[in-house]
Amino acid sequence: MERNCGAKFMKHAIFGAGAIGGLVGTALASIGEDVSVVVRPEKLAIYPATLTLERPTGTLTSHAKAIVSLSEPVDVLWIATKTYQLEKALESVQVSPGCVVPLLNGVDHIAVLRARFGNDRVVAGTIAVEAERIAAGQFIQRSPFVRLNLAASGRPLLGGIIERLGRLGFTCQFIENEQTLLWSKLTFLAPFALVTSASGLNVGEILANPEWKQKLDSSIIEACAVANASGAEIDMEQARAAFSSVPPTMRSSMQKDLLAGRELELDAIGGPIVRGGKSHAINVVTTAELMAAILAKVRH
After folding, report:
1. Most CB atoms closer than 10 Å: which of 38, 116, 210, 262?
2. What are φ and ψ of residue 86, in 5° steps?
3. pTM of the full structure
4. What is the predicted pLDDT for the residue at 210?
């Protein structure tokens, strides 16, 4: 990556026009970046040229172009699809982007993208926020925070953009240890998504319920154990403490998807812990039981 962090006004493409892609795309366009949003062909004619993001601190409105495939070079391709949509989304990539930043859940997608684009082009990233798409081109940020973390390899190209996103209220960091970056999110997301989805409760209700709080604690312990065995450096007590700062009414995206009858990212979120438990001989029975309980809900 040859650009330095002082570079301005790069070209970006967003794969995934849902909540996360919309939030990122609107924010990037609002700080002057050239943004294109990849949409399905049937949505192209009706997709608005103006993106709107309602935030707790106010509303961002910015312009972006809708496209159906990536046929022209871009500096950065941000991938914010669901994990099960990744393979299909990549079919519409006709050129090699300068840099690929996936904001997908889990850890397994990094190897898939590096096999396609090369090791140096893929900058691992994670984002933590509660957001929703309320209509085409219209998004709402429900949580008071947006935490965007990227692998340190992306600093030369993306440092300037990250600094400007910080001025919008994003909390951004570059993380040296890629496994720590990826698993720091998963050790929060997996317990959060699995316990809320299995229980049907929000965070506050879980913390107030001894039985579900115990399952939450057990799933955090399991996730952290697998993470550290996989090369991450995760402090289990910090992982536990993270839940005390979560808005008590917060619900997971998986929980919302389950209620709406949509496909779940169950394997991407819980699978790495179960598979890691098997390969590292770590007891992950709570995680496995939560996944089974969610699958039972899907089948009914």
Report:
1. 38
2. -60, -50
3. 0.91
4. 97
